Amino acid sequence: MNKFFVSVAGLLAAGYLGLSALAWYHDTTYAEGAAARPAASPEAARIRDILDRNACYSCHSTKAVLPPYASLPGIKQIAQFDTERGQRYFRLDTLYAALHDGAKPGEADLAKLERVAQNDTMPPARFRAVHWGTGLSAGDQHTLLDWIAHERKRWYATPGVAAAFENDAVQPLPHTLRVDPRKVALGMRLFHDPRLSADNTISCASCHALGTGGVDNRKLSLGVGGQLGSVNAPTVFNAALNHAQFWDGRAATLQEQAGGPPLNPVEMASVSWEQIVGKLQADPALVETFAQIYPDGISGPAITDAIAEFEKTLLTPSRVDAYLRGDARALNSDEAHGYQLFKSMGCATCHVGANLGGQSFERMGRAGDWFAARGGALTEADNGRANVTHDPHDVQAFKVPGLRNVALTAPYFHDGSVSDLREAVKQMAQYQLGTAPSDADVDALVAFLNALSGTYTPSPALAAQP
């Protein structure tokens, strides 16, 4: 009997090896959507060719169709493990779409691909052992890194960044964003106006106080009638730089985000925009101000547009920005070392861009079961992005938070479950990166994160406001 099972295992292994040698290179026969379409340019085609030759799409897309032999006993379990793990770390669909459309690739996608190319970590060793010929050549690595640098400079490098940091995944803040000064001034008034809530007690600033890092420093925020929200309030500072708003990304723009809390029954609890507009129309000065800016006067879209315009001014440049713009003395040695660790450990593969985050959705616990370690019953909010997309692959995925002013915005994570920054760093290293940094490295990382505390300078448009 034992010999029989050994023989079967041997046949399966031989078949696996033989089929692998012939068939598991990526082929458009086994792809759907963007991966099956031609690339937009010769440069994009070269990147596609590298990804295709290494079968990247097979494990890093929910739309890939694996070859028939992948359903054989034994092989099926291996394939399921590889695809589940691959999709947890990096889904290539949006990158393939960008290569087809000629659109800008995702900022986090570039950082993840860069890390793979630099460290030659993909495909995994086990995959290479049976898929002969896969693995990045030196030429592949060079091509990928050159393309990434080109795309990063083309789409994401902040004007004025020092040449030494031009190709960093992290970028300095822009000095300003283009705004309408009249809307900024009106939006500031509305941001602090409790009449947007049902009982005139809660304003936007109640949960996003500008004097406390743009948050309320509570695990869960208090709404009308003392109701508790379901997630920790993210900072409003620099939120204009995020690719989507809220932890689950349900708002695509700042204006959509501004329209959420007033009608949320747990937060500001107004029953309709008509209710809010009715209260504001009783204020003659406000009616006149709206009429000067918005032809239709006070309305829900006008209110949220003005608030969003004000929020575009909530930028908080820090010493890190001066450093990235070329002032080598802006950071001390511990902080500068922390920045190098931030990049080398892999933190900057998700905490990318000028806001050091906010550009992608990532599963909480990519390298370990963070929720099991946290304990307690799972909540609806713990579903994360899946509450919006209803895609099981998005369960427990959240918008990566921006890290600017992070030393001021405790408690941390979507549930506010960690109150100490050092502990948050250690948990992220363990459950997202699968590593355990030394105490000295944690100290350096925390020093760098503290250096991200910035200064908010009110817009000149607000100078004349009472």
UniProtKB/TrEMBL annotation:
<dbReference type="InterPro" id="IPR036909">
    <property type="entry name" value="Cyt_c-like_dom_sf"/>
</dbReference>
<dbReference type="InterPro" id="IPR025992">
    <property type="entry name" value="Haem-bd"/>
</dbReference>
<feature type="domain" description="Cytochrome c">
    <location>
        <begin position="182"/>
        <end position="314"/>
    </location>
</feature>
<protein>
    <submittedName>
        <fullName>Cytochrome c peroxidase</fullName>
    </submittedName>
</protein>
<dbReference type="Pfam" id="PF00034">
    <property type="entry name" value="Cytochrom_C"/>
</dbReference>
<dbReference type="InterPro" id="IPR051395">
    <property type="entry name" value="Cytochrome_c_Peroxidase/MauG"/>
</dbReference>
<dbReference type="InterPro" id="IPR004852">
    <property type="entry name" value="Di-haem_cyt_c_peroxidsae"/>
</dbReference>
<dbReference type="InterPro" id="IPR009056">
    <property type="entry name" value="Cyt_c-like_dom"/>
</dbReference>
<dbReference type="Pfam" id="PF14376">
    <property type="entry name" value="Haem_bd"/>
</dbReference>
<keyword id="KW-0408">Iron</keyword>
<keyword id="KW-0575">Peroxidase</keyword>
<keyword id="KW-0479">Metal-binding</keyword>
<feature type="domain" description="Cytochrome c">
    <location>
        <begin position="333"/>
        <end position="453"/>
    </location>
</feature>
<dbReference type="Pfam" id="PF03150">
    <property type="entry name" value="CCP_MauG"/>
</dbReference>
<keyword id="KW-0560">Oxidoreductase</keyword>
<keyword id="KW-0349">Heme</keyword>
<dbReference type="GO" id="GO:0004601">
    <property type="term" value="F:peroxidase activity"/>
</dbReference>
